[in-house]
Structures are given as structure tokens and as C-alpha cells.
Structure to design on (205 residues):
């Protein structure tokens, strides 16, 4: 059997099938490589159809802040609405991406959880370096808190206070807080298109 004939691994086949339905997945910790991939996929799907919705399904413990902000920037730059869905856990960076979806199109499954916190970062080195790192961390923290406040309708001060300690939200609490708009009751709510509706469908014999 040649490499071309060899079946793709199930995980890759699943990802390609969902991509053909305009569904992207973040199903692990977010690192810079995954962030670049998701940014690229958002642009590709937008180029394919600048009107149709794109879905981002999230089940993630969090991860890279630069990657998280890069994805959010692309979500805001493309003309498409982005449906965000918490399938199980949207913690830290996952929470940020979840609430960054298009208003009215942010979803959570009934037993999923959301974690709000400020995260942590190690600082070390000589005193001037520590001061520079601290300034940068404060700037990033304030940027993140401001965006969460905009997306949830709360003040930045409230987000700051609520994120000082790990704060876990149930599905209904996530709706009340403003992270999401709806609890999923029908799979059709979180599926933008059928597989045949986009030019990116991939079939395997």
C-alpha cells in the first residue's frame, strides 16, 4: 500500500470532515502552532465564502495568550460570523475564545464548564528585565480583561475582581454572566453548513 492509498488516521479524517462543514476544533491545549493553524483555517474558510458562518468548537484547558489574541484578531478581521461552542471545557484561553464569538452565536453544551482566571507567568532574570516583563504582563492582562468586559457586558473592574481566583461557571451560569448566549438544545444550532455546501469537502475511499 502506497502512502497515497493509506487511510488517514481517524483524528485527521474527522478534522477534515468537520473542516468541510466549516467547523474548526480546538480540542487540546492551545499552543502557537495550533494558533497559527486556526488563524489560517479561518482565513481559508472566509476566502471560500465571505458570508457563511464559521464554527469554532472548543474543548480546551487553555494555553498560549499570544495565540489566543491572534485568533481573536482574525475572528474580528474576517467578515464572517463565528459561532463558538463549548463542548466540555473552555478554560482560560478557551474561555476567552468562547466569549469572543459573534454575539447571539455563542453556545455551551448543558454539562460544559467555563473557567475564568488571570493565569500565571514566571518572571525571572535581572531587576531591569523583571520590570520590563512585569510591564508587558500588565499590558497583556489589561488587554485581555478589556476584551472580556466588552464581550460580556461587565466592567473591566468586575472582570478583574472575578478573575483573581479560579472561578468555574456551569452552563446556565455562563449564560447569565455573558460568556455565551445559549445552551445547546439542537445539534443544528452549532453546525453552519452541510458537508456538500463548501468547496473544501474531502472524501476518502
Amino acid at each position: 500500500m502506497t502512502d497515497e492509498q493509506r487511510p488517514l488516521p481517524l483524528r485527521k479524517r474527522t478534522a477534515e470532515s468537520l473542516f468541510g462543514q466549516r467547523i474548526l476544533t480546538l480540542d487540546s491545549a492551545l499552543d502557537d502552532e495550533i494558533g497559527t493553524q486556526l488563524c489560517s483555517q479561518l482565513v481559508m474558510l472566509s476566502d471560500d465564502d465571505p458570508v457563511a458562518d464559521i464554527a469554532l468548537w472548543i474543548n480546551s484547558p487553555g494555553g498560549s495568550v499570544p495565540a489566543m489574541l491572534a485568533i481573536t484578531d482574525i475572528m474580528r478581521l474576517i467578515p464572517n460570523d463565528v459561532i463558538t461552542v463549548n463542548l466540555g471545557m473552555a478554560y482560560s484561553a478557551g474561555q476567552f475564545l468562547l466569549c469572543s464569538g459573534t454575539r447571539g452565536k455563542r453556545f455551551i453544551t448543558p454539562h460544559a464548564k467555563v473557567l475564568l482566571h488571570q493565569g500565571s507567568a514566571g518572571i525571572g532574570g535581572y531587576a531591569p528585565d523583571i520590570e520590563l516583563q512585569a510591564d508587558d504582563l500588565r499590558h497583556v492582562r489589561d488587554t485581555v480583561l478589556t476584551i472580556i468586559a466588552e464581550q460580556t457586558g461587565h466592567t473591566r473592574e468586575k472582570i478583574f475582581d472575578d478573575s483573581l481566583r479560579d472561578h468555574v461557571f456551569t452552563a446556565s451560569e455562563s449564560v447569565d454572566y455573558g460568556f455565551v448566549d445559549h445552551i445547546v438544545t439542537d445539534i443544528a444550532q452549532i453546525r453552519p453548513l452541510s458537508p456538500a455546501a463548501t468547496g473544501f469537502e474531502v472524501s476518502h475511499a
